[in-house]
Amino acid sequence: MMEPLPIPAPGREAHLWIASLSGFHEPDLEAAARLQLSDSEWRRVQRLALPASRNLGRLSRLLLRHVLSQYNGVAPGQWRFVEARGGKPMLAQSTLPLEFNLSHSGDCVALGVSHRGHPIGVDIEIQRRRPFLRLARRYFADSEVADLEHLPSESSTARFYQYWTLKEAWVKAQGRGLWTALDSVYFHFDKNGRLWPMEEPPLPGYQCWSLTVAPRRCLAVVLGAATNNAKLRLFCVGEDFIPQPLHGILQGASAELTLSGGLKGS
């Protein structure tokens, strides 16, 4: 067993773990899930209708178990979870001082990890063709809509998904559902691409990151109760679930970064 990773520093650091189905063989993934997932997790995954959805569900829960084991050496199959509202997994009676949040889309899974007391929200989306300006006018702040309307068409779709994932990650970090008014929190990208979150009324102490993960994958991370210079450490895992650091550390609230490390676009 490798030496455990240090726990993320309270309010000063978060960890982001990324995995893609393209890095795993389906039979191996199914066998590992059957061995390491609890009976309730297995049944939940098996109820998913599409094979691709079942594989993504298996990878999500396996990634969570293996990542938690990176921090203290407990075998992945030994973790016990309880379910919060909406089926969100939470550690049951663990002394490991961590919070985490999962998101998946297409063939990618993202897991954010932070120190307990510093809530984290993660959202990943594949950019698809959709009536995004109509959605933005309904759900976004006026300044965000104006930004989208003034961008060239090749940039406006990507910017829409940046806003959308940031909003979802924000409400997840605060423990809210998406019934929260999405125009109550809004974001601004300055001319240098730096990202600034705002809310009415302002809520200080949040650090936000917006990233591009492989072609057309947009990902956002929001860390609560954070310092102004909190850092995001990036890891990618493959079939052996051994972490591979990706480009070191992303610092500050600056936005876009493209990650490699085996993730493939579709």
Shape: globular
* Strands in their spatial order, largest beta sheet: 4-5-1-11-12
C-alpha-based Rg, rounded: 18 Å
The largest pleated sheet is described as: 5 strands, mixed
Give the proportion of residues in helices. Answer: 25-40%
Question: How is this structure best described in words?
Answer:
By secondary structure, this protein is of the alpha+beta class. It has 6 helices and 13 strands. The strands form 4 sheets. A 5-stranded mixed sheet has the order 4-5-1-11-12, with helices on one face. The protein starts with 12 loop residues before the first strand and ends in a 7-residue tail after the last strand.
Summarize the structure.
This protein is 30% helix and 30% strand. The protein has helices spanning 26-36, 39-46, 51-72, 132-139, 142-150, 153-173; strands spanning 13-20, 81-83, 89-91, 98-105, 108-115, 120-126, 185-189, 195-199, 206-213, 217-224, 231-236, 244-251, 258-259. 39% of the residues are buried.
